[in-house]
Design a protein that fits this description.
- About 75% of the residues lie in helices and about 0% in strands.
- The protein has 6 helices and no strands.
- The chain starts with a helix and ends with a helix.
- The model has no long low-confidence stretch (mean pLDDT about 90).
Length: about 100
């Protein structure tokens, strides 16, 4: 849901939504479960989510990184982290 709602949010909320996606995807416990759920989702949901994952974590990854790094709690999130998130999401969604 966060992937699809990012573009309809205010600028500050975009960053926190993107950061939430990064945290969920990379979390040792939540990550595998969430990716498994995406892989098992219906065709339309997977296709729509794939469009957004590619947009935020590939096509506009530099913008996404700026939005995330503007969030005080972002810690040390780097471009490579976002690229990994994109790869993990795309793999799950194309699976």
């Amino acid at each position: 849901m966060k992937l699809q709602s990012i573009m309809n949010r205010g600028s500050v909320k975009e960053g926190t939504d993107l950061l939430d996606i990064v945290r969920i995807t990379l979390d040792r416990n939540c990550g595998p479960v969430s990716r498994d759920q995406l892989e098992k989702a219906g065709d339309q949901l997977r296709a729509d989510t794939l469009l957004h994952a590619v947009r935020w974590f590939d096509q506009a990854v530099d913008r996404s990184l700026r939005k995330i790094q503007a969030v005080p709690e972002s810690g040390d999130i780097e471009l490579e982290d976002l690229q990994l998130v994109g790869e993990l999401l795309v793999t799950a969604l194309e699976g």
